Amino acid sequence: MNENITFERWLEVLGYRHAQGLHVESSDISLSHRYRSELNELLRPDGQVRAKAVFEVDGVPAVAFFDNALSLSTEDLNRIRQKIWNQNLISLVIVMDDSSLTAYPPAKNVPVGTTLSAKEAITTGYFSLAEISSSDVQRRLPKWFSPGDRVDRQLLKNLGLAIEQLTKVHVARAAAQGLLGQILFISYLEHRNIVSEVYRTQRDVEPLHSLVASHNTRGIEKLIEALRKDFNGDFLSLDHTNSDWWSLVSSKGLDILGRFLDQVDLDTGQQSLWNYDFSFIPVELLSGIYESFIGERQSILSAYYTPRHLANFVIDEAFHTSLNPANETVFDPACGSGILLTTAYRRLLQIQESQTGECLDLAGRIKLLKEHIFGADISEAACRVTAFSLYLSLLEDLKPADIALLQESEQVKLPTLRGINLLCGEQHGDFFAPENLFATSQRFSLIISNPPWSEPAGSAWSSADVWAKKKGVPRARRQLAGDFAFRALESVSPNGRICLIMPISLLIASTSRPFIQGWLALAKIDRFINFGDLHNFIFETAEHSCAVITSRPRTGTQSWSIPADEHIEYWAPKVDASLAFGRLALSPADRHLVPAQAYYNDPTRLVTLMWGNEFDIALCERLRAIGQVKDLFNNGENSWRTRKGVHLKDKHAKFTSDAAPLKKIGHILVESLKSSSPVLLDDEIQSFPEGIESVVNLTDDLWDVFHGPRILFTDGFDSSKQIRAAYIDRPASFTSSIGVISGPESDRELLRFMAAYLRSDLATYFLLMRAFQVTCDRNRVTLGDIEQFPFFAPDDHFDPSRAREIISEVSLALGDIERPEFLRAQNHNPQIQKHINTLIHEYFGLSAVESALVTEANTILVPSVRPRGYKSINTEVYKTITKNELKDYAETLSQELGIWRSHLNGEGSIAVKAWTVNSAVGRVAVAAITLSEPEKAADFDEKKLEIWVKKTMEGLNSQGLLPAHRSETVAFLPDVTIQAPGAFLLLRPPFRRMWLKRSAMRDARSIVELIHREKVSAE
């Protein structure tokens, strides 16, 4: 069989041949495509990879196909995988011959591929377009997509180890960072043939690798000086004191640098992975990685490596609403090592080249850089890296003639950026210093930045504090990122836009309300993307997760006025397998339009909308309106009290107390509260710790909460998100790691009930819907969170008599747990907790639908919150929907539509059925809703509708609408509504997240709104 036919037949069988996103050998890649250069490198017939085709998932190259007609050797295949691994884009390598295909990950950790015979290949099977596009392949082969094996992780790991080892042989940390920075960037120039063999011959210099291997430091210095002379005086100047770096490195230090260049794993000493190839490693990756190990900047300013995909996302957002993107002037006031500026510059290059239809020459690239890219940073070293990263971007894919002109002509040099486009240092680079000429210029149409997330402690006073006090801007915890947001309004042009990466706590915590209200009065937020669920996948070492905010200044009469019809587009993407392909997949439940005034009045509304919807908001607000836990702390003589336990040690304490009284009562450890029991059992009370004779300030108030009825709780909890609260009334002390809620003896039963409530699924539901730290940052609950929980005493209940009965029944249930046979936590009967949950639902007056929402949240949503890493990426919400779950969805939707019909005095019959369909572009779940006249029974022809669904899916896919691309970094998961006479069809992926009961409630309202809009239009 002919090789072309064989290869094309494979693409046909697997569903790729006519798919949007397939690029074949020698095809023209659009000049505007973000990865045009990378795709050309992969597909060039005379290149180093020579793929026959590449398939992209949502704009990101994901699968490289190879025709094995020429019988690739193992060595050839390894060379190809090594190049692709370095490029850091492709996730799968598939080699085809006339009888089978073999698939591999790019990383070396899977030496033997997985083979699929031609007989086994089907359109919806293994390695098909359907499996790739749905990310099912990641679920099936998770080890192939391990982020730890990617080039950026390996390079970052080895850089960190190299720095640590260099410091042990007496190389200063700053010098170690600078040496490795020069190695990275010179390697880039050499591997990309900008520093070619011809150049080395003309300048009488040698390759860097051989110079390091031979310990020829004089030769290295000669090479660096030649590059500076030929390109620019700033070239490779990563620190103003670096002239003696190489001459001061010992033989042991040079050996470490040599092993780094040899791609030896500096942890194990073995060469376990592919060699680095900087002809494929992208510039932005170098820039971002270098930023990550500028240790002083990271520790003091709380700045973090901005991952490449996040940088791309930010630039997408920043340019998305641009009317004339080629004319944007971009400023980053905290540019770090320049990954955002580098990404923006590359985007501007692509835009201009797509408009002119040809690649920009050297003069055009220099002009673009000088006129459109600006930055500032207090770190001189970071600014030098920014300048060099921009130089490399300028040189990328430059014609050989232009490279030669740079190297040979004294009149043609790279532009000087520091001091002109880049303001650097503590004086001129400080965004809040009067000497920063960019800060108040209002000359920039676009401000993009990942500002420092610093909350200074104590009395330390900074330029930001001085500026904020002078301007009178509202602040939250002196958070520097908030000051940057206000200062950016003075830098951007009146019609410009601002795109910032911000700590999420600054934007949705109740304590941030002064900042939010002050900033929202001056800035109109267009889009708010909450990355809280991706906390462990973006800034992995950061304490807080982030959000990306796009906004613009309010001008003139708009300032301090928020129109009633102004809305914020709020996205809350969730972790799913599509991250393996470098994309965010947004489900319909992740996208909301939030009234700006509602956000102004209650920022925590956005916490609820992370996992909930308007029905959850309504439930929370209805219950909170009746009463809250905090009301019990302001109840006159019967007020409850709350505080922390005793400090056993505190070196700063001025007063200590004798610990003798504490030794006469029991003591409770944090571990005692880790069981699932809402009452503290006898065998969990310990003796006071031996060897401690004094404690910090044992006051009468503190002694009192060691006695009487009370609830103990810890700040932390496990993945179940259940508050670790337990009732106790026996004398016992506890440390400051434990909080307490205590009340009078007359409230003993109510305190027992409160403990059961805090352990219930309803309390966990409120945590999910109201506590931003739970959904965005870490497993932590504060008293402030608990105080906001709905709660009311029996006297305030709508049925006081039944309320008292429920409290007594819960107390009896707790008594069952306290029986001797339940003294061990593992014997805690789940049926008792289920019974308690039911009673608590009744106490709070939950309807059957509301109870179902709470149960659904606990069983499906809560276990899916903030996966800890790629091993747990396949969460409950993205499991495949079952027949029974689809049936539940259909029943809920039918019931909700019936309720709407009654409320609106409608008539007619409703029938709903949900099932799954296997189409040529993958599996899809379908809900069919048929409506008919009152005298007719609603019905539908399932087979006819199924054919319709398949044709619709194929048509949408052929037009590139599955999924709908928001940009190359974001895809909206399919959410298709088809309206036909008397019927609606809803088409979505078959994931649980899309077909929950709360989804059915939302869908019912949407269908009713659609019908009424059409009715109004017709009238």
From TrEMBL:
Q: What family does this belong to?
A: Belongs to the N(4)/N(6)-methyltransferase family.
Q: Which InterPro entries match?
A: DNA_methylase_A-5, DNA_methylase_N6_adenine_CS, N4_N6_ade-DNA_methylase, SAM-dependent_MTases_sf
Q: What is its EC number?
A: 2.1.1.72
Gene Ontology MF terms:
DNA binding; N-methyltransferase activity; site-specific DNA-methyltransferase (adenine-specific) activity
Ranked from the top, the taxonomy reads: Bacteria, Pseudomonadati, Pseudomonadota, Gammaproteobacteria, Pseudomonadales
EC class of this enzyme?
transferase
Task: Indicate yes or no for the key word Methyltransferase.
Answer: yes
**What protein is this chain from?**
site-specific DNA-methyltransferase (adenine-specific)
Q: Which organism was this protein described from?
A: Pseudomonas marginalis (Pseudomonas panacis)
Q: Which reaction does it catalyse?
A: a 2'-deoxyadenosine in DNA + S-adenosyl-L-methionine = an N(6)-methyl-2'-deoxyadenosine in DNA + S-adenosyl-L-homocysteine + H(+)
- Domain of life per record: Bacteria
Record SUPFAM superfamilies: S-adenosyl-L-methionine-dependent methyltransferases
Keyword Methyltransferase attributed: yes
- Name of one Pfam family that matches: N6_Mtase
The segment(s) forming the DNA methylase adenine-specific domain are 285-509
| Keywords assigned by UniProt, alphabetized | Methyltransferase, Restriction system, Transferase
For biological process, the GO terms are:
DNA restriction-modification system; methylation
